[in-house]
């Protein structure tokens, strides 16, 4: 079971939930056989952008993150939205930039948050104007960025490698001094 799942009562009939073997996995289920609710706990699709702006990569800091913690722009897909459109929307919303394209990098698991990351390289132009989700951003030269061992870090590593750069592994999303 995903530790992010905190269901205690059935969302359909309000009875207590318990664990049962369903589809060869322990799943949270309703105790009432007439209800039949099963919490499948499927991963959530999230888009991630390696934003290229003025010949550098943009790393951003979410308002809830520690002071030196920077990462790629990410966001949830809207209902009926393709990943290509979603990643461009996130770049426009969070950074105020005009995305010029969305070039697929790859799919990455992020088990800790029960997410499936869909990563793109997004060249963009304009002046950065952060929205309320972000409180800082950095332009980082391709040869100065470190990637982190998880989540969107692997997408950044793979994109840098495809551009001919040997990325350095860091401990967390951060800027090399």
From TrEMBL:
Cofactor(s) annotated in UniProt: Mg(2+)
Asked if the record carries the keyword Transmembrane, the reply is no
> Entry's Pfam families?
NUDIX
Answer whether the UniProt record assigns the keyword Metal-binding to this protein: yes
Q: Which GO terms describe its biological process?
A: NAD+ catabolic process; NADP+ catabolic process
At the top level, the lineage of the source is: Bacteria
Q: Which Gene3D superfamilies match?
A: Nucleoside Triphosphate Pyrophosphohydrolase
Q: Which GO terms describe its molecular function?
A: metal ion binding; NADH pyrophosphatase activity
**What positions does the domain Nudix hydrolase occupy?**
42-162
Question: Which controlled-vocabulary keywords does the entry list?
Answer: Hydrolase, Magnesium, Metal-binding
The record's annotation in PANTHER family points to: ADP-RIBOSE PYROPHOSPHATASE-RELATED (PTHR42904:SF12), NUDIX HYDROLASE, NUDC SUBFAMILY (PTHR42904)
Question: How is this protein named in the record?
Answer: NUDIX hydrolase
- Report the source organism: Hydrocarboniphaga effusa AP103
The beginning of the lineage is: Bacteria, Pseudomonadati, Pseudomonadota, Gammaproteobacteria, Nevskiales
């Amino acid at each position: 079971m995903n530790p992010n799942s905190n269901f205690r009562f059935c969302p359909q009939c309000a009875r207590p939930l318990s664990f049962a073997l369903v589809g060869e996995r322990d799943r949270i289920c309703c105790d009432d056989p007439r209800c039949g609710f099963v919490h499948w706990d499927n991963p959530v699709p999230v888009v991630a952008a390696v934003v290229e702006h003025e010949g550098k990569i943009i790393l951003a800091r979410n308002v809830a993150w520690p002071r030196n913690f920077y990462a790629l722009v990410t966001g949830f897909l809207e209902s009926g939205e393709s990943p290509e459109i979603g990643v461009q929307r996130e770049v426009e919303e969070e950074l105020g930039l005009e995305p010029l394209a969305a070039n697929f990098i790859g799919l990455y698991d992020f088990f800790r948050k029960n997410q499936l990351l869909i990563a793109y390289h997004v060249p963009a132009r304009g002046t950065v104007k952060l929205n309320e989700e972000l409180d800082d951003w950095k332009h980082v030269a391709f040869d100065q960025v470190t990637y982190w061992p998880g989540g969107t870090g692997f997408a950044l590593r793979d994109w840098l490698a495809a551009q001919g750069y040997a990325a350095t592994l860091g401990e967390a999303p951060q800027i090399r001094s």
